[in-house]
Amino acid sequence: MAKQNIAEQFVDILTRAGVKRLYGVVGDSLNPVVDAVRRNSAIDWIHVRHEETAAFAAGAEAQITGRLAACAGSCGPGNLHLINGLYDAHRSMAPVLALASHIPSSEIGLGYFQETHPDQLFRECSHYSELISSPQQMPRLLQTAIQHAVGRSGVSVVSLPGDIADQPAPEKAAETALVTSRPTVRPGDTEIDRLVDMIDEAERITLFCGSGTAGAHAEVMEFAQKIKSPVGHALRGKEWIQYDNPFDVGMSGLLGYGAAYEATHECDLLILLGTDFPYNAFLPDDVRIVQVDVRPEHLGRRSRLDLAVWGDVRETLRCLIPRIRTKDDRRFLDRMLKKHADALEGVVKAYTRKVDKHVPIHPEYVAAVLDEIADDDAVFTVDTGMCNVWAARYISPNGRRRVIGSFSHGSMANALPMAIGAQFTDRGRQVVSMSGDGGFTMLMGDFLTLVQYDLPVKVVLFNNSSLSMVELEMLVAGLPSHGTVMKNPDFAAVARACGAHGVRVEKPKDLARALKSAFRHKGPALVDVVTDPNALSIPPKISRGMVTGFALSASKIVLDGGVGRMLQMARSNLRNVPRP
């Protein structure tokens, strides 16, 4: 039996850790690893057109499956292209192993062709970034990298010179058992005791939930029922907590809606559950705050805390619920539910007025129709910018759908690459990329990846020929928009030229038919929807300075903030509110 080389050992360990695919672009220093993948039936090489796409795709796969995913880049510029997608995966707490192949080991430090120092470059966007400079470091270094990525939920980077990848693996190298899943973390008794006392003493409690509530929906609902608490959420908490929620008061932050802002400011105890919500301007500074998070480094970095609780949300609530007293006073909860319904009622009326006849098409209308037509277990990948707004306000979670985007890193061009990774996990599941024209054109080359692998991703392109979120930022600052207009092609014709299904929609009456046709198509499809560039959105609370900026720059722009079917849920929740 032939002796393994380092590349073969590397690939074998990846497969043992559950990695099914390695996303990347081939290149000389990476060739030994690519060849090892070719000869290993347990793993596939996924050839993308840009390494940034590889990292985004791996991050999306990890978020959908909860398992380790992997990407690779060749030496110098090749692996350097990974960095933006790796930043996003790391900040999304997605377990990703990145292979940064390197120049010949004898040339490191001598200014060789394509030389960079990847073990240093990736340290800020990883839990672990190290260089294999000797075959004797294998397999321990790779195993350590995997443990970091899985155990700490983020990125690990292994830099591997091509000449070392081709060398024989050390004999009798120890291979330890790999950790491939995370444990739950229970808070200490002291923190639980203090939190029970604070809850029992408080009269008005609000829960504000983030992505750390994944898997804890039932516990959050039971907890809210027992303490009669309104429940708000951050954008990354929406898919886990908004559905089947009779306590829902919407979302806070720059894309917020409803009464979440009021609920967090008018309570006397705010409990932050599994959220690293970055916008401290939207958090109160005059109420008692408790934060529960499985990552202790998140505790207290956004706001002053009266109690920090290190623990998994689900385990923490399981400890709390049997011990706290049931509250009977619903007045605060009912008042917030009423505010939430009233807020949604006003903005939805503005949105629904003749929207099915408006040309160019309202992007809100596109998102609302998409929400109605898409499958109940669809995966939506969402571009940064105004697509974030429409997804946040119109895509209805139900416990089976997934909505992922660059919600923490805020990168453009993420939706299409993420859709690639999401679709590879299950070709039979509907995956919809909600792409802006700016983001789509930035990595448009990887639309060809859909065609090459016949991935049935459906790209719904919000084509308003502008960078509209940037335009909004300029308007808020009182600046005239500049450098935001784009001259776009007929993207449907481009899609057809690539060998995919493509259709262009310019009238609202044609939208539903075009979407249904694309969804029925068995392969990749693109629906190019020409949307209104003047449809912008504002946060639920804006400062006097923001108002001044709008007055200077946006006197003729209609700012809509519709929220689609969420109004129906808010009205339904009001049935439990006593009438005077």
Short description:
The chain is α/β, with parallel strands linked by helices. The protein has 24 helices and 19 strands.
Strand content range: 15-25%
* Number of E-type strands: 19
Share of helix, binned: 25-40%
Main sheet overview: 7 strands, mixed
Distance between the termini: 84 Å
Average pLDDT reading? 90
Calculate Rg over CA atoms: 25 Å
What is the approximate shape? globular
**Unreliable runs, pLDDT <50, ≥5 residues?**
545-564
DSSP summary: helix tally: 24
Class by helix and strand content?
A: alpha/beta
Biggest sheet, spatial arrangement of strands: 10-9-8-7-11-12-13
Give a structural overview.
With 580 residues, the protein is an alpha/beta fold. Helix content is 38%, strand content 16%. The chain contains 24 helices and 19 strands. The strands form three sheets. The chain has a seven-stranded mixed β-sheet. Strand 7, helix 10 and strand 8 form a beta-alpha-beta unit.
Please write out the topology.
Elements: H1 6-16, E1 21-24, H2 31-38, E2 44-47, H3 51-65, E3 69-73, H4 77-80, H5 83-91, E4 96-102, H6 118-121, E5 128-131, H7 140-151, E6 155-161, H8 162-165, H9 189-201, E7 205-209, H10 217-227, E8 231-233, H11 238-241, E9 248-251, E10 257-258, H12 260-265, E11 269-273, E12 288-293, E13 307-310, H13 313-320, H14 331-352, H15 363-373, E14 379-382, H16 386-394, E15 402-405, H17 415-425, E16 431-436, H18 437-442, H19 447-452, E17 458-463, H20 468-476, H21 491-498, E18 501-505, H22 511-520, E19 525-530, H23 544-553, H24 566-573
Parallel strand pairs: 1-2, 1-3, 3-4, 4-6, 5-6, 7-8, 7-11, 8-9, 11-12, 12-13, 14-15, 14-16, 16-17, 17-19, 18-19
Antiparallel strand pairs: 9-10
Helix pairs in contact: 1-2, 3-5, 3-17, 10-13, 14-24, 15-22
